Amino acid sequence: MTKLHTDPVPGVDALSKAAFERDFLTPLRPVVFRSLASSWPALNKWTPQYFADNYGDRQVRVYDASFARPGQHYMSNIEVLTLREFLHAILDSSRDLRMFLYNIARELPALLRDIRFPDLAAHFSRRFVFMFFGSRGSVTPIHYDIDLSHVFYTSVLGRRRITLFPQTQSAHLYRHPLTVRSYVDVERPDFSRFPALGNL
Q1: What are the tens digits of pLDDT across the range 97-135?
Q2: What does the alpha-carbon distance between residue 98 and residue 64 come to, in Å, rounded to a whole number?
Q3: CATH code (residue 47)
Q4: 46-57: b or e for each residue (b if 16 or more CB lie within 10 Å)?
Q5: β-bridge partners, 143
Q6: Residue 89 sits in which domain range?
Q7: Containing H/E element for 121?
Q8: pLDDT per residue over 135-155, tens digit each?
Q9: What radius of gyration, in Å, describes the C-alpha atoms of the chain?
Q10: Residue 41 included in any domain
Q11: In this structure, are residues 98 and 63 in contact, taking their beta carbons and an 8 Å threshold?
């Protein structure tokens, strides 16, 4: 065995609230909505230039791949840049930088006008709307969200591949002690070092 066994996540164009709750939310099954955000102004408006022009002077915490390493600096940012400087760095250089969990509901509430909360998530919180930016090729290691939340992840610009595992399989993923991170490299799993991966 050289790869982890994974199954594709089903994709739908539309789904009623009742069907979403019955078939996905309650049994904790992921689903891809192919057109859920198609009416969002953000899809045409949110470009790097737009953010640089309108919010470029905002100070943001910037991270690199070291943020996931266990130890004294676990989950620590490496520097603080203006948003304009950060965007310049990830678009015009080879630096592996990212920013995450940037709460636009708190920091840039005007941006909430550019997204539409779907009816099937009417009871989801509007206070926790986060932005993530990453450089080309950046990788976030396997982890779980500490609040065990349900998440509507929407890709506005670029592409992102996500690998999900059921919570019931977490014992096979070799979590770092006292962290939310895993030792496992999904792309190059080492079954000799981590034999429990064979149970996934």
Answers
A1: 999 889 999 999 999 999 988 888 777 888 889 999 988
A2: 6
A3: 2.60.120.650
A4: bebeebbeebbe
A5: 181
A6: 11-199
A7: none
A8: 888 888 888 887 778 888 899
A9: 18
A10: yes
A11: yes
